[in-house]
Each structure stands twice: as C-alpha cells, then as structure tokens.
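Fill in residues.
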C-alpha cells in the first residue's frame, strides 16, 4: 500500500513539473470533465463517489474522453483460495500525455485529483472510500473516511483535520465523527521531541482530557521526566536522577498518593502519603 501511494505522489509531482505545449493545452481543455464527476467541492457529499461505485473502469475507458489509455499488467496475489492461485489485474488509466488518472487493483481503486491549490487522493476498497487532501507543500491537511455499504445512504464516518506550525509535523489534529469530537495538540522542542501531548474529547456532551508532559534532561542518556494528567488532575509523576535511579508517584482520590523509589531498575522503597503527610513507609 505504501509503495503504491508513494508511486502516485512521485508520478503526480513529475506531471506537475512538466510545461504544457500548445498541443497539450488543447488536449487538457476537456481533460478534467470526467474526474470532476468524482469530486466536486461545490457538492461535497456522497454523490461524487456514486460514479465510482456505479461505473467500472471499462465503461470509463469506453467514454473515450481525451482518449484515455488503459495499461494492464498481471500481478499475482500473495494468497490463494482453495489451493488455486488468485491473479489480480492492475489497470492504470492515463490521458494522452500519459499522466496517471486512475489505478485499479482487484477491488481497490486509486484516483489522484489535481487541483490548483491541492492534491486529492481517493482510495476505494469494497464499501469504504478514503480521501486524502494535500496542500501545495504536500502536507496532509485533511482525511475523510466514507461508508458506502448502503447505496443511497452513504455517509462520512470520520473527518480528520491536521494543522502545522513551522515544521513538517502536525501540531494539532481534530477528529470529527457522529456524536464525537476529539482534538489533539502537540508541542516539540528544538530537537523535534514531543514535550507535551494533549487529548480532549467531547462525547455526549461530556468533556474529558488527557495530558502528557515530557521534561528532558541536559544529559540525553537520562530519560525524560514525565507527568500524566486527567481532567486537569495529576495522576502520575516520574522523576529521574540518572539513567537507573528514579521515583514514580501515583496519585489517587482524596489526596492520597504512593511514591516508589527505584535503584538500578529495582524497587527499593514505597512511601504512602495522605494530605501531604507520610503515613507509611516500606523498604524492599
């Protein structure tokens, strides 16, 4: 899957870099007509997918729009059914300039759609369709997952949105599905390491949050100190004095917590605290 996806991106990039000749411009004038049927931003619901479901690529080729060319090659499947080897036919469709327009492999379909300010990759497999949206910097900024199992009642089951800072890693992500919204937020240090990871979920009118904080030591060989919070209440705190010596404190309700000390990876002592006072100690 990753190899096919990488191939699509490389092929699109090469296509985008080519300058059109006058003859190519004439050919491309009606070039997008067929593929805009797959995705129209002004009519953004399941209707754009129905053409994929209802039409086979043989029918598309038969339309002879821009003289679409089908390139076939036999690829053997890695599995067998009833001891008989299964063979899938890989079909690639290109325009007269040999730019990739669609690919079919077994029950899976890939369609790259090039717009002026984005690239869209459509991947259909049986009753599921995934759309990946990339900006002009080739960064994934949105992903949609569609359920196509009920014809006429197709629905979007998940939307993921990605937001970036100065680097290539997303610093924020929003997942939206029916009755649920989840938001994720990350902070990084100058070495690209995660220093804060936050998750906030809204479901059935109830908010829940989880936060993880990593504080790195000057010595990179010493693991980062760690804090884990739930709904703005600290639950776990781990502090390292060196690579093998650290304390781990677990917080419970009613101001009760347990501090465990480790030396060379072995538990050495437990301290029980109630209302900031030591109530019990145990050595190992």
């Amino acid at each position: 899957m990753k190899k096919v996806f990488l191939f699509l991106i490389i092929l699109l990039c090469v296509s985008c870099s080519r300058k059109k000749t006058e003859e190519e411009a004439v050919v491309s004038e009606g070039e997008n007509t067929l593929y805009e049927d797959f995705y129209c931003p002004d009519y953004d619901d399941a209707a754009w997918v129905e053409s994929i479901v209802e039409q086979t690529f043989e029918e598309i080729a038969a339309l002879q729009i821009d003289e679409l060319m089908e390139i076939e090659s036999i690829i053997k499947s890695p599995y067998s059914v009833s001891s008989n080897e299964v063979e899938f036919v890989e079909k690639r469709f290109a325009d007269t300039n040999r730019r990739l327009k669609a690919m079919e492999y077994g029950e899976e379909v890939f369609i790259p759609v090039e717009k002026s300010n984005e690239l869209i990759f459509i991947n259909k497999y049986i009753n599921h369709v995934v759309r990946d949206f990339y900006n002009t910097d080739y960064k994934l900024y949105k992903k949609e997952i569609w359920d196509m199992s009920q014809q006429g009642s197709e629905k979007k089951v998940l939307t993921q949105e990605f937001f970036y800072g100065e680097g290539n890693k997303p610093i924020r992500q929003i997942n939206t599905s029916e009755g649920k919204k989840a938001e994720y937020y990350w902070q990084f240090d100058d070495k690209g390491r995660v220093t804060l990871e936050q998750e906030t979920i809204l479901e059935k009118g109830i908010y829940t949050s989880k936060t993880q904080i990593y504080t790195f030591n000057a010595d990179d060989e010493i693991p980062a100190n760690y804090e884990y919070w739930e709904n703005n209440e600290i639950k776990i705190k781990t502090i390292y004095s060196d690579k093998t010596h650290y304390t781990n404190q677990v917080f419970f309700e009613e101001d009760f917590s347990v501090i465990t000390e480790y030396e060379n990876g072995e538990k050495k002592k437990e301290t029980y605290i109630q209302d900031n006072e030591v109530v019990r100690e145990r050595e190992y």
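The CA atoms of residues 12 and 100 lie 7 Å apart.
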